[in-house]
Write a structure and sequence with these properties.
Elements (H helix, E strand, L loop, with lengths): L1 H38 L5 E7 L13 E9 L4 H17 L12 H18 L8 E11 L3 E11 L6 E10 L4 E3 L8 H15 L25 E4 L3 E6 L12 E6 H4 L6
Parallel strand pairs: 2-3
Antiparallel strand pairs: 1-2, 3-4, 4-5, 5-6, 7-8, 8-9
């Protein structure tokens, strides 16, 4: 009798320990899933628009040409909110008017400033036929577990002989919710720069020793430099020199793209 009781007690202890171990494994799995989700957030998006038709001020006053569509992360996570803020800050730098020196924090405020500047211009020069213009289009160029790349095409005109149009790439660290500077995309900037210069010279049929600036470029001290805009996508690395960055406005932008397999040894992402 005592022997049976002892066996029963042992069986109960074994089953109890087994259940606790199963619960622990399930808890560890759930925790691991939550950590993975936190470290690799997946975002959802919509598009926000601002146009003269949507602004009350334009119903009673002359307004500039205005057409803005920008990407907005709809997730209520801290990372999503922070990247939205950083993205809007980058947009406000596009909307800067001649009288502005410091970008606003939000695109709405920048648009208000743009409208105010145009109203002042029309008051000062009522006979001028010039009309301010602001055009922005954004799209998600690439997204991985760790980075989000947003491409912005814009055109801004606030008087003068012509406006200014360009394409901008912004790369965001999804985990830490911060902007990644273009050069931080590279683990070996010096080596990649040498490679990029060789490809640049090949594109424009220049030898290794020919002067860049004597062939129409604007590099400081006649020394090749990487552009301010670089973006990594699934299969490629893209570089863009916008007007005035490496050549005249008339030359437009200069684009180079490299297969990722050819340059990945120098990349951080």
């Amino acid at each position: 009798m005592k022997k049976n009781s002892l066996l029963s007690l042992c069986l109960i202890l074994i089953l109890s320990l087994s259940c606790k171990e199963d619960q622990k494994q399930k808890l560890d799995k759930d925790t691991s899933t939550e950590e993975t989700s936190s470290k690799n957030p997946t975002f959802s998006y919509d598009t926000k628009t601002i146009s003269k038709d949507s602004l009350d001020i334009c119903k009673m006053n002359p307004c500039p040409k205005l057409d803005i569509e920008y990407l907005h992360i709809t997730d209520a996570t801290n990372a999503g909110k922070k990247i939205n803020q950083l993205n809007e800050k980058s947009l406000t730098e596009i909307v800067l008017t001649p009288s502005d020196s410091i970008p606003q924090d939000h695109i709405d405020k920048s648009v208000d400033k743009f409208m105010e500047e145009y109203a002042n211009f029309k008051n000062d020069f009522p006979d001028s036929h010039a009309v301010y213009e602001l055009y922005i289009r954004q799209e998600k160029l690439f997204e991985s577990d760790s980075i989000l790349v947003i491409s912005s095409i814009f055109y801004n005109y606030t008087g003068g002989a012509h406006g200014y149009g360009a394409k901008l790439y912004n790369t965001y660290d999804k985990v830490n919710a911060k902007r990644i500077e273009p050069k931080a995309l590279l683990k070996n900037e010096k080596a990649f720069k040498a490679y990029a210069e060789g490809m640049f010279r090949k594109k424009f049929h220049l030898s290794e020793t020919e002067s860049l600036n004597k062939n129409g470029f604007f590099f400081e001290n006649d020394e090749f430099k990487l552009p301010e805009n670089m973006a990594i996508t699934k299969d490629s690395l893209h570089m863009i020199y916008n007007p005035y960055e490496a050549a005249s406005y008339a030359e437009g932008d200069i684009k180079l793209s490299f297969p990722k397999k050819d340059v990945e040894t120098w990349l951080n992402y």
